[in-house]
Design brief:
This protein is of the alpha/beta class. The chain is built from 5 helices and 10 strands.
Length: about 190
């Protein structure tokens, strides 16, 4: 069975973006990128591979899920950020003309979509963000992989933008880097 993995960058105070959705306060370089580029390579946007003249790898994930705001953050660059993956964007207010080729826009219940994805064969499913979608899928998340960045936002979009609902996870692995980033991997308890 496929796991739903919420893999995201987060600030020390649990924010995935600034109040306006910007995420440029996160470090854009450092030794932690060696791990991202080797172990989590299929989470790198396709445009990066295109710029390097490389083909994006597949293997860890076969599908990426995004809320509209997470998807829209990259629209200045591309309308299909992860063409090497099945891309599903959740929105109740946008139409098919708002996304690029290879991107499925849906207003379906995220939990039902995830149940269908988990029932299919294939690699794991990556929950890219955002916090509202993550809160809707909180009970379906099998693993959390958090790149905790050495920055405090003070305000912004939370990792889970939903009501109080404690969920327990077990720490499986933690790695720290000279960049100050700590990568924590958790599995649902």
């Amino acid at each position: 069975m496929r796991d739903l993995v919420y893999y995201a960058a987060v600030s020390l105070d649990g924010r995935i973006a600034a109040p306006d959705g910007a995420f440029d306060a996160f470090p854009l370089e450092g030794d932690h990128f060696d791990v991202i580029n080797s172990e989590w390579a299929d989470t790198v946007p396709g445009a990066m591979y295109d710029a390097l003249g490389m083909t994006a790898p597949r293997g860890r994930f076969s599908t990426v899920l995004m809320g509209w705001n997470t998807f829209a953050a990259g629209l200045d660059f591309t309308d299909s950020p992860y063409p090497h993956l099945e891309q599903i964007v959740f929105s109740r207010s946008r139409g098919a003309g708002d996304v690029g080729e290879g991107v499925r826009l849906t207003a379906d219940d995220p939990r039902e979509v995830v149940a269908g994805l988990k029932a299919r064969a294939g690699a794991d499913v990556w929950l890219c963000g955002g916090g509202v979608l993550a809160a809707q899928l909180r009970d379906d998340i099998d693993r959390l992989v958090l790149k905790v960045n050495p920055v405090v936002f003070g305000d912004g979009l939370p990792l889970f933008a939903g009501g109080y609902a404690p969920s327990s996870f077990l720490l499986e692995r933690s790695r720290s880097f000279a960049s100050g980033v700590v990568m924590n991997e958790y599995r649902r308890a």
